[in-house]
Design brief:
alpha+beta, globular, 24% helix
Length: 193
């Protein structure tokens, strides 16, 4: 899966992080976010722009997004959109959620996103990949998201990323893996039970 990474020389990132920290008492929220990103890059971690990666990957022939993002604790990810033209927004997450609710959903602008099915259907569902037990964080999966190549069917996905959001469109890659044929077989059996 191709993603939009925030790349720079780790030594330069460390230098910039230290500059921000020197002025900690003057920092605004966005400065804290920038400093946190510099720190992770300086530590050799991968930071990506997940929402931009989704837009850049584009859509399948069906018109549905090639990539999806969802809270990691969920089993299903529902996709829908609203608005039109430059004001189009898409949503990944819970099936039924109030427009103002933030938990369990990721909303993002996607200017000029086209109706994938000429208005005959408003939502689609993809299976959220299993996080293998050895990669699961010790704390709740509710604090993490998964980015993956979406299968808008009952097929189980293959190569996800486990992410932790900094804020805005900056996401730390916590883990990346390919689901094994065994993991996919067990999960597909449960889906089609």
């Amino acid at each position: 899966m191709k993603v939009e990474a925030l790349k720079m020389d780790p030594d330069k990132a460390r230098e910039l992080y230290e500059r921000y920290v020197e002025h900690r008492d003057q920092m605004r929220p966005e400065d804290h976010e920038i400093a946190a990103i510099y720190k992770k890059i300086a530590e050799g971690k991968t930071v990506i722009r997940a929402l931009e990666s989704i837009r850049a990957a584009g859509v399948f022939e069906s018109g549905l997004p090639k990539l999806a993002i969802c809270p990691a604790h969920m089993a299903e990810c529902w996709f829908s959109w609203s608005g039109s033209g430059e004001n189009t927004r898409v949503r990944f997450g819970k099936q039924h959620v109030h427009e103002r609710e933030r938990k369990g959903v990721v909303r993002m602008p996607w200017p000029n996103f086209k109706d994938p099915n000429a208005g005959s259907r408003w939502t689609w569902c993809a299976q959220v990949p299993l996080v293998p037990v050895h990669l699961r964080p010790k704390h709740s999966l509710e604090n993490y998201h998964i980015l993956w190549e979406a299968e808008w069917t009952k097929r189980y996905p293959v190569d996800p990323y486990l992410l932790r959001r900094f804020g805005g469109d900056a996401w730390l890659v916590v883990a990346a893996w390919d689901l094994t044929p065994v993991e996919r077989a067990v999960m597909e059996q449960r889906l089609n039970g």
